[in-house]
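Throughout this chapter, every protein is written as a compact record of paired, labelled lines. The reader may check this reading against the record printed directly beneath this paragraph:
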Amino acid sequence: MVDHRNLKRVNVPIRPDKDGYLGRECPRKECLGYFKITPGTGISEPAPCHCPYCGHSGASNEFFTQEQIEYAKSVAVRKFLSDIEKDLKSLEFEHKPQGMFGIGISLKVKGSLPMPIRYYREKQLETAVVCEKCTLKYAIYGVFGWCPDCGVHNSLQIPTKNLELAKKELTLAESADADLANHLVGDALENVVSAFDGFGREVCTQKATDIGFQNLPTARRKVQEAFGFDFADVLRPDEWEETCKLFQKRHLLAHKMGVIDEEYVQKAKDPAAIAGRKVRVDRDEVTSAMSLIEALGRRLFAGLFGPTP
């Protein structure tokens, strides 16, 4: 009979990658989203894990990836087989033949090749985030998602970071030559509009509604129709007009090589606009508009999900 005293529980450590991230995978079959977290950051006490993609919440030990599970299985099986082999070797014996007609009997255990370990490598993801609420460092595909520790969505955090990048571009424009300065200011404007559009689309998608935000008056009307509130009520009429004009300038930069067309002349309320000439984007107007755009974002978020912290 095999002696099972050599058989013990196998604990297999799952170690972070070279950047300190540990892979996680949503257990929902409809999702199976892959993300990474940095152990030691975020909530210190035991807490449930949240999928950043679908929001599913469950115990942390439910979020091991399939590759981690297969690795752990292979390590455990190798250890189990090694222990079995030790038990069998303890039963080895050899009885030599006695006398002229004696028969010798022996039992020898022949060693086998060890079970191969199924090693794996954590995947590269697209966006690294530090949660502003619980300080968890995590990485995801795409841009927006729920924090795996505290469950707070990063909808407001991501556009705020993009606004900070745009501010850096405007700062660089102060000391650049004219051509580079114009390029930096125009690029900063495009980043600001893209950040707000991506943010607005994301938060409306969470409410099962598809609304684009590059055209502010249209977005304002659609939000009022879909959700019953006006996200522009935080701005004065003149602030709203200035913000809309800036979005229309961005449209010219992105789609018209910056050349003013008749549509801009009619809609932008820009007394300096002349069709056929290049639109002027001033660094100061982009800077002042950033706070207005951030206010629009916070109002939109609050209207959809309640007041922000």
User: Anything to note?
Assistant: The CA atoms of residues 197 and 213 lie 5 Å apart. The two ends are 66 Å apart (CA to CA).
